[in-house]
Structures are given as structure tokens and as C-alpha cells.
Write a structure and sequence with these properties.
The chain is an alpha/beta fold. The protein contains 13 helices and 16 strands. A seven-stranded mixed sheet has the order 2-10-9-6-5-3-4, with helices on both faces. Strands 13-14-16 form a three-stranded antiparallel sheet. Helix 4 (86-93) links the parallel strand 3 (76-79) and strand 4 (97-100).
């Protein structure tokens, strides 16, 4: 095999990536320069949104997204328990309350029905927004969530960190790329090394709303703008109009992001080839994430469910296969247990967590390595 250790995810850096970063290191700007704007424009074009704002990481993007949408202390937002904590933490950063709806037991994404039941159990206006997650790379049907959100005057933030290049097909037959802003107010992406586009760290916020775009742009840069310069002011003049943050992405990271973005279609295609190999091996024997009709999974993860999850996890690690668990349900984390999370039935999420394990999934995974992983899994289950 190519590698003695097979992780669940791995970045792919080629010579073009390296040369582009070196060129940027030799240029005039290491940060706040032209590469950031270029990356934003190319990313917006890629997902089909009007605007994109580069940020230091996806958590920062989530934070300024809820701020831009005006979330106030005490206001309530619904999200899924099966996600990284950041999807919920952004609400807490603004003093809001996090409420969890359950997942669909087959897609592992936020259940529309569970969300609807939770909303209808409270007076109109009780909730302010919904943060669905394109879990493992599987796009949520945002058209259906948009219809529900419009009925109750809610905003939507699409956590698309797992899914650049993924899409669902809407009722008109149109392919809706994750983060394109057609149905969600704001989309969020991550450029952590195990994600599709690796910048070391980094994130992108997308929207089709110019007002939100301007708010997001200011919030990621200390709340500062130079828009009100006049002939009475020198070139140094700026205004801090609100309390923002230093959530900027550097030119170095942006340069890497541009070349990584160019490879994403090929990377997603390879991820789907790997997923198909897993499905052919496991079909009828081991449960894996379902694929609704008209949906293209970007496959950040490939998750299976087994009864003896801990046993398989330990066995694979002994064999050099570093599978991972995604995720501990957010409502069971000590912090969220302390503050409470409402009375929603989250049994699907808890059953899923008891069985889930994420297998190696990245474009440079070789066929031999994947076959080794599959063989080890069946050996463990059949012994």
C-alpha cells in the first residue's frame, strides 16, 4: 500500500499549489491584498452566488452570519445535533438560545418534519432562524426548508462546510449548488485541511443579498469601513461603525485556496468513485447514508453504522486505519447539557451516534488502500 497509516481525511497539495504560495510570498501583499478578492470572486462564481466574503475560518463565518442577520440575546435558533459544535456555538456567541431538531435516520441531515413539529409546538415568532447542515457532503433540500421558513418568517444559514460542489435538484428541475444563496440567506464553507479545499485554516461566507454582504464585510474587519471618505479626509480616514472582529483571511491562504478550488470538481468526482466502491461492498450488509433522488453528494465523509462501533474503531486503528466518529451529538456535550436544549425528541440522533463511524474518504485514497479498509471491516464483523 502507498501509506502505512490511512487517515479518515487528508489534504492534497500539488506543485501548482506550492508555486502559487511561493509567488504570493514574494509579492507585495501577504494579507489584505488582491488574492483575497480574487479568491472571493472565483468562489462566488463556482457556487453560483452573487457575493462571497473570505474569513479566517468557518466558525468565524458562522459568527458574523448570525450577527449580520440581527440575532439578539435570548432569541432562538434551530439546528441539528449531528454536526460540529460550531454550528450551534455561533448562536451562543450572540447570546441566543440553541434548540435542536432530530435528524432523518437515513440521510443523517436535519429532518424537515422534526423541525416543523418543533416550530409548530411554539407560538409564531418563538424562533428566529434555522441552521441546516449538509452533513458528510449531502445537500439538504433547502427549497423545502425555505417554504417552512417563509411560513414562520425565519432566516436560514446553510452550513455547507462539508459540501462544496454538491447540489440538490429543486421542484423546477434546477440543480441548486450548495451555498448558491437561492434558498438560504447565507452559506458557510470551511477550508480546514481535511475539507475539500485546504487553506490550512479559512472559510467563506456566501450570499445573494447586498445588504448582508456589506454587513458581513464590515464585521470580518473590526466593523470598519472607508465608505464615508470625502475630500475633507485624507487617505488614512476610516470609521468603525460597529463592533466587529479580525476574521480576515490572508493572501497566502487565498492563493492556496484559488488553486485548490480549481481541483475541486475532480476531487468530488473521485470522492464519489470511492463512495460507490464502498456502497457496492456494503450494499445489503452494512447501513450507510442514503442518497435522495436528484442529489449529488460532495462526500466529505463516508459514514457507516455498525453495532460494535467501539470495537471496530479500535480494530481499524490497530491495522493502521484511522477512522473517526462524526459527531458526538451537540446536545449531549457537557456545556449544552448544562444550559439545556428544550424538549425535542432526538432519539434518531442518539441511535445514529451509537453506531456511526467515518471511513477514509479523500481523493488520493488508492484503490488498494480502500480495498484494505473494506477487507478489515468484514474481517472484524465476520470473526
Amino acid at each position: 500500500m502507498k501509506n502505512s497509516i490511512i487517515p479518515y481525511g487528508r489534504q492534497y497539495i500539488d506543485q501548482k499549489d506550492i508555486e502559487t504560495v511561493i509567488e504570493t510570498l514574494k509579492a507585495d501583499f501577504l494579507t489584505q491584498g488582491p488574492k483575497v478578492k480574487e479568491f472571493e470572486e472565483k468562489f462566488a462564481s463556482y457556487v453560483g452566488s452573487k457575493y462571497a466574503v473570505a474569513v479566517s475560518n468557518a466558525t468565524a463565518g458562522l459568527h458574523i452570519a448570525v450577527m449580520a442577520l440581527g440575532l439578539k440575546p435570548g432569541e432562538r435558533v434551530i439546528t441539528t445535533p449531528i454536526t460540529f459544535a460550531a454550528s450551534a456555538n455561533c448562536v451562543r456567541y450572540c447570546g441566543g438560545e440553541v434548540w435542536f431538531a432530530d435528524i432523518d435516520p437515513d440521510t443523517y441531515t436535519l429532518s424537515l418534519e422534526s423541525t416543523k413539529q418543533l416550530i409548530e409546538s411554539k407560538p409564531k415568532g418563538f424562533f428566529k432562524g434555522i441552521i441546516p447542515v449538509d452533513f458528510a457532503g449531502l445537500p439538504v433540500n433547502l427549497e423545502a426548508f425555505r417554504s417552512l421558513a417563509d411560513e414562520y418568517n425565519l432566516w436560514i444559514i446553510e452550513d455547507a462546510c462539508h459540501a462544496p460542489g454538491g447540489y440538490f435538484t429543486d421542484s423546477k428541475g434546477d440543480k441548486q449548488l450548495c451555498g448558491n444563496g437561492m434558498y438560504a440567506n447565507i452559506g458557510i464553507f470551511s477550508f480546514h485541511p481535511v475539507k475539500h479545499i485546504a487553506c490550512g485554516e479559512g472559510g467563506m461566507v456566501t450570499t445573494n443579498d447586498e445588504v448582508l454582504y456589506n454587513k458581513l464585510s464590515k464585521l470580518r474587519t473590526h466593523g470598519i469601513t472607508k465608505e464615508n471618505m470625502s475630500e475633507n479626509h485624507g487617505g488614512w480616514y476610516y470609521e468603525m461603525q460597529e463592533l466587529g472582529f479580525n476574521y480576515r483571511l490572508t493572501d497566502i491562504q487565498s492563493a492556496l485556496g484559488i488553486t485548490q478550488l480549481e481541483k475541486n470538481d475532480a476531487g468530488v468526482k473521485r470522492r464519489n468513485e470511492i463512495a460507490q466502491n464502498y456502497k457496492q461492498a456494503f450494499d445489503g450488509k452494512i447501513k450507510f447514508q442514503s442518497l435522495p433522488q436528484g442529489v449529488y453528494n460532495a462526500h466529505h465523509l463516508f459514514v457507516i453504522e455498525v453495532e460494535n462501533r467501539k470495537g471496530l474503531y479500535d480494530y481499524l486503528r490497530q491495522a493502521g486505519v484511522f477512522a473517526q466518529i462524526h459527531y458526538i451529538p451537540v446536545h449531549t456535550l457537557p456545556y449544552y447539557k448544562t444550559i439545556g436544549y428544550g424538549n425535542a425528541d432526538l432519539s434518531n440522533s442518539e441511535v445514529y451516534y451509537s453506531k456511526c463511524i467515518s471511513l477514509p474518504m479523500y481523493p488520493t485514497l488508492t484503490d488498494d488502500e480502500q480495498e484494505f479498509v473494506i477487507e478489515r471491516i468484514f474481517k472484524f464483523l465476520n470473526d
